[in-house]
Design brief:
Elements: E1 3-8, H1 20-23, H2 27-43, H3 46-58, E2 63-66, H4 76-89, E3 95-97, E4 131-132, E5 139-140, E6 142-146, E7 149-153, H5 171-186, E8 190-194, H6 213-223, E9 227-230, E10 237-243, E11 246-252, E12 268-277, E13 280-291, E14 296-304
Parallel strand pairs: 1-2, 2-3, 7-8, 8-9, 9-11
Antiparallel strand pairs: 1-12, 4-5, 6-7, 10-11, 12-13, 13-14
The structure holds fe (ii) ion.
Length: 305
């Protein structure tokens, strides 16, 4: 029986609540709010995020992977509405979330910030090496087992300096991966790795990259994975890592709420149909995209990885 996994990323939900800048002043956040008011609010539209969400739900996937950037400037007032939006998609057991750089835009206490996403980031398998990445109660990597699929959640979201959209996993998270990937493979699971930032050097420029993408891609080349999914670039993309055990597909999702202006990939999501045939995993990608002309969400691509 096939497993249908939905992949959603970067809705950058607005609006940014009034008074955000003054409640807990940080220069980076002020610049983020200005950039939202000048440019970004036109690019990321709530009604598109909602149409995309409704289309995703209409497909009734078995599970949904959400690769971060739910919000914009990690303001206190953004987390509650984002949590409500997550709840409108499904329960915490049905959605696995990994945070993006805009969810950790500046430092904010875990209890009033990232804890809103906690139920969506809790693993159900204990193993050695998981670490507290964000100063909270949530350990990364986390693993969720759904039928014969293992969802591995990584956090690349740590506050970065001004004008940087980088991210980092850190040694502890990376060190926990080889043994984990090996163990899950030996137990026959299809290993799906979720991360916000592109997992390999060269997919984006260094100002926006995962700082330890070299280390991560080396682990993936060594131990393999059946699928790695990410967001951050607001572009659909497909790359491969040549691993000892075969190719590792890296699939980038568009920003869920992006306008259809002819310059960006319009908002959308991916459906991964995962099946096992004669001992090998078959993964089909169906691209669903917002169509600005009709105001609907349609299939714009279909391929096997
Ligand atoms: Fe991002």
């Amino acid at each position: 029986l096939e497993f249908r996994l939905a992949h959603l990323s970067d809705p950058h939900l607005g609006p940014i609540p009034k008074g955000t800048v003054f409640k807990d002043f940080k220069l980076k956040r002020l610049i983020g709010v200005i950039s939202w008011k000048v440019r970004r609010h036109r690019l990321f539209q709530r009604h598109i995020a909602e149409a995309v969400r409704d289309d995703l739900k209409a497909h009734a996937p078995d599970h949904c992977a959400f690769t971060g950037d739910a919000i914009n400037v990690s303001a206190v007032g953004e987390f509650g509405p984002a949590r409500e939006w997550l709840e409108s998609i499904g329960s915490a057991g049905e959605i696995s979330f990994v945070p993006g750089n805009h969810d950790a835009y500046v430092e904010i206490p875990y209890a009033i910030g990232m804890s809103h996403f906690e139920p969506y980031m809790l693993g159900d398998m204990r193993f050695d090496g998981a670490c507290m990445h964000m100063g909270g109660a949530t350990a990364f990597p986390y693993v969720r087992l759904r039928r014969n699929i293992a969802l591995i959640g990584l956090s690349s979201a740590l506050p970065q300096s001004l004008f940087k959209a980088t991210g980092s996993l850190g040694h502890e998270q990376i060190q926990a991966l080889p043994e984990l990937l090996k163990d899950l493979k030996s137990r026959g699971f299809c290993r799906v790795v979720m991360i916000h930032h592109p997992p390999m050097p060269g997919i984006t420029d260094r100002r926006r990259a995962l700082l330890d993408d070299g280390e991560l891609s080396r682990v993936l080349a060594e131990k393999g994975a059946e699928l790695v999914i990410f967001g951050h670039n607001h572009r659909r993309s497909l790359h491969y890592i040549e691993a000892k055990t075969g190719k590792v597909p890296l699939v980038g999702a568009p920003a869920a709420s992006m306008v259809d202006d002819g310059r960006h990939n319009p908002g959308g999501w991916n459906l991964y149909t995962i099946d096992r045939d004669k001992g090998t995993w078959q993964i089909q990608v169906t691209e669903r995209s917002w169509d600005g002309l009709t105001g609907g969400v349609v299939t714009t691509g279909e391929y096997f990885v």
